[in-house]
Amino acid sequence: ANANANANANANATNSARITTNAAADNNSSGKGSGASPAQQLEKQLFLTSMASSNLDITATNGGGESTSMGYKELSDRLKFVLRRFMQIVCNVRPVVLVLDDVQWADQASLNLLESWMLDSKVSSLMVIGCQRSELIENNPLLQSTLSSIEECKTERNINIQKMHLGPFSVNTIQDMLVALVIPDNDDEINGLATIVHRNTGGNPFYIREFLQMLVQNDHLTFDADDMKWTWDDNEIEQNVSSTSNVLELMKRSLQQSDAAKFVLPVAACLGATFSLSTMIVVIRALTIHSSHSAFFRDLFGITTFVAEEDIVTMLKQCAKDGFIKPHKNSNSGDKRKKRKSEVVMKAKKQERNGNVVTSTESSKKRRSKSRSSKIYDDHKKYSFTHDKIQEASLTLIPTDKLPELQYRCGMVMLGGSKAETLGDKIFVIADLINMWIDHVLQQDSDTNGRQIEMAMLNYKAGQQAVQSSAFDAGLKYFENAIRLLPADHSKTNLQQTIDIYASAAECALVTKDRDRMQQHCSTIFKFECPMLMKIRAYHILINVHLEYTEEDSGSKAADLCLFVLKELGVKFPKTNVGQTFSTICGMVNAKLTASELADRPASEYKITHDATENAIAKTLDILTSAAYSSCKELLPLVMLKGLKRAITYGVAGRSPPFIAMQGFIVGYFMGDFESGRKLAETALQLLKSRDCRSCEGKTMLTVYAAVLHWSRPFEDLLEPFMQTYQIGMSTGDADAAAWSVANYLHLMLAIGQPLEILDAEMSTYSKVVKDFRQNRQFKQICFSWQGVKNLYGSSNATIRLVGDVFDERSMSATDPMQSGNVSSTTAKNSAASQQSASDAISPEAILAIRVMLTMYFGDFEAGADIAVNGYDYAMKVGAGALSVVTGTFFCGVCCFAASSPSKQKQQKYRNTARTCRTNLKKWVKAGNPNCVHALAIVNAEQEASQRKYESAIAFYRDAIEECRRRDFVNIEAFATERLSMCLFQMGNHAGGTRCYNESIRLYKQWGALKKVELMEKKRGSTMM
Questions:
Q1: pLDDT beyond 50 at 161
Q2: Residue 274 and residue 383 in contact, taking contact as beta carbons nearer than 8 Å
Q3: Closest CA to 464 of 495, 434, 419, 505
Q4: Alpha helices (runs of H) in 120-162, residue ranges in sequence order
Q5: pLDDT for the residue 210
Q6: What is the per-residue pLDDT for 56?
Q7: Distance, CA of 859 to CA of 837 (rounded, Å)
Q8: DSSP labels for 154-221?
Q9: Is 753 left (phi over 0), alpha (psi -120 to 50) or beta?
Q10: How much is the pLDDT for 731?
């Protein structure tokens, strides 16, 4: 910290403490029945995984080549997730109190982490005590923003916030304190002294202590041993002590009266708030001995002789005695003594066994002799300033124009001949000290280029080390200092290193959301004349900006940049839609021809490539899949096929496994071969272990479970894998894959009938996490589904309209094809496509599934049929293979058959869509999809009922009920039972219909659909008549 920045702090400043208690109830997510959710069932295992993954590693990307290190954004998300999981688990074990001092100086990363803890419903029993200086809080807008966010959510999260203002002491309080200290003959004697103390200190307790010490040192306040009391003269104090409103002046006067302090403390203050004794000795000896520093040091302090080690130790001890600094206790000293004692005992026993017994007296003599010949100080001993104001005052003892040079010289001495890689945490202190004189160094002639490069590399390494701790603001500062220090011709001799420094600065700017500086550094890289492989990191940074921000056409811009990069790397895509379609068809034909061969090929037979170009291409194609998914889904199949072809032809690169998994999706969904698709998906998972593919592990698993395996495995068996994918995505910094995984996890919970109360809590928790990690599309999609849950649960007044606390459909496009049935199919397609221009648009298949689900459960079949007719075909196209395609097909088929009637020709469009849905379900069941069996039975029942074939409809309903009961799908069982009761009533079986109707109410209540139960209770009499 630059202590000079606070040199003019006002002594009358008051302190305030903010106590924030997260008293939120432990919002533990439990699964169906009394069991816990997968996240809790695996809590211990996931905690160990998180802790193991906290061993963070970051290296510079070289030439776009293969690197196991993550990008800075992924590194930030990974560390944030690990610390969040750690706090969740620790707080669930026992209450935690976290005390943070000087919060007004907190950086953005720390404040973001604190806010995520406070707003996380799974972090319970946490108290945070934050102490801040009220006069400095205005200088930190980030802190104000964090506190405002916590304030806004205190009701929702049940956070108890208390503010305690610790004001200055009044004259009366000081008077009471002095009465207790000096014990006057009568209290009236103390009034004058109390007034003087208050006027000089402003009532600040720290200043009061220092002021009284100064009075004692100057003999203005003395102890009379004869009379056994303290004496003073108010007039003498008034005349000899100048009033000051600045503690720095007060501290400066105290320091100037100490010969030891005015020499060693300015140097110590340069080294930081905490410094080691060994470093102090090295620095002071070098400054007094070395010819390049001694003249400057002599002129500054008047020191003309060599300063011995023992003199430095003595002066520091005197400063500690005076209360300016305090020594650290060596927490390991006790362990070391025990270890030494144990070693002595073991050695004595060994000598005794060998017949060579050494007496304890002889042993102690040897130890004393060795001790006398050793150093007079402990290499590991450390000191800290007792107060930051003392450190600031120590720096003011140096003339302002000389201070930067002294700091620079201290830094150069500490650097010595060491390499930056070996400095450890000291690199930050050294870099900060050297940077104090950076302007002077830059003004020197070209002969100092060697020194500039040395300083530039020091800042570069400091920036990399800062990034490892997610200190991206500091990292950006170091990287930009390195850029300033690089000679103009450095790119001619070391272009790759120059590009790496600029790219590191750009990536830090991306994480800190400083787009202007990011763009500036990337633009500089683009101007260099070099191969794309050397500049690819900068292009990936720019692409990620477009993917992260939700501006219009941002997804398209990201896709265009990806295509440009791939073209430069030798991978070309057709420019026209016709060409893209033709290439996709050819690729699909080839995929079909090779599907059987690839499905049976073990992972060990895939060639592995470490080629830098292939790894760069695979990474760019991987990013392009995300861009295409959000903006131009018609390009997605071609991207998948390109990635697969390169993996087969040139070998599996670091980002290739997702494309193998996508091949499983193509073979399973488009070609109906679910078994071959499953084999390819499992091969992709095995490839993750065959080489270091940690960076794409989350995305590969997401593709496997969200696009492939749900076509062949029961939904309920995928809950745990999706939660594991979420955890792995977060632990590897892939927040995008993690957010999509948790969105699928929540959709599955809704589809299989998990209790709505639990689902409401889970959606509340994970929506906040997803938003916290800036995954806007997934956040909106979760909120969309969450509002549907609230409608069913009864916490919203709406039924089929998604209007409530967490989502308002009126904010969506007025031309949204899912809004009403008065839009043509062509308009629906075009308007839905236009919605995808923004990267945060909700997937059409998800919109369709939730909207039609609500109309089905609430019995408004015609509204659901209108939505299905206008949106089903497009949702099937853009959401091919998604989980919501299966559920949406079921809901649309039910609504369209239920709304159709043989006597109404105008509803032919309903029957056409219904038959399409039934055909798809039948095809999927035949191919082995276990999740469509009950759905097909209900759709068949609805078809029969629409034709008034009630007996066959009842048989289908009973088959569906039996399947749902076997798999514990209480929601679908409730609906099928309700529809069965309607058929029984139509056939005149009122007793059977009543039983089924009442049973459906019980099942809906068990599910938690209280709004549905309320409506059924109201209609009970009219329905049964």
A1: yes
A2: yes
A3: 505
A4: 141-152
A5: 81
A6: 41
A7: 34
A8: TTTTTEEEEEEEEPPPPHHHHHHHHHHHH--SSGGGGHHHHHHHHHHHTT-HHHHHHHHHHHHHTTSE
A9: left
A10: 84
pLDDT, residue 756, reads: 94
Q: What is the mean pLDDT of the chain?
A: 80
What's the Cα-to-Cα distance from 652 to each of 414, 648, 684, 960, rounded to whole Å?
A: 47, 7, 10, 44
Q: What is the mean pLDDT of residues 859-883?
A: 88
Q: Which of 352-366, 634-648, 860-874 has the lowest mean pLDDT?
A: 352-366
Q: How many C-beta atoms surround the C-beta of residue 968 within 10 A?
A: 13
Cα–Cα separations (whole angstroms), residue 474 to 424, 469, 701 = 16, 10, 35
759: phi then psi, degrees, rounded to nearest 5? -65, -40
| Residues 654 and 646 sit within 8 Å (Cβ to Cβ) | no
Q: How far apart are CA 222 and CA 623, in angstroms?
A: 76
Q: Would you call 201 exposed, middle or buried from its count of C-beta atoms within 10 A (0-12, 13-18, 19+)?
A: buried
Tell me the DSSP string of 630-694: HH-GGGHHHHHHHHHHHHHHH-B-TT-HHHHHHHHHIIIIIT--HHHHHHHHHHHHHHHHHTT-G
The 3-state DSSP class for residue 720 equals helix
Torsion of CA 892, 897, 901, 904, to 10 degrees: 30
Per-residue pLDDT tens over the stretch 809-850:
877 643 344 444 433 333 334 333 333 333 346 788 888 999
Strands 159-166 and 221-224: unpaired
Q: Using CA atoms, how far apart are residues 236 and 222, in angstroms rounded to an integer?
A: 13
Contacts for 250 with CB less than 8 Å, ≥ 6 apart: 11, 200, 201, 207, 210, 211, 214, 244
Joined tokens for residue 228: 């056994």
SS3 374: coil
What's the CA gap between 704 and 681, in Å, rounded?
A: 5
Helix/strand/coil percentages in the chain, nearest 5 = 70, 5, 25
Which residue in the block uniquely carries the two structure tokens 């400066």?
252
Q: Give me the residue label for tokens 């992260």.
A: 548
**Other beta carbons less than 10 A from residue 290's beta carbon:** 13
pTM: 0.76
Total residues belonging to the chain:
1025
Banded pLDDT at 68 (limits 50, 70, 90): very low
- Amino acid letter, residue 584: T
Please compute, for residue 492, the number of CA atoms within 13 A of its CA located in the half-sphere on the CB side.
Answer: 3
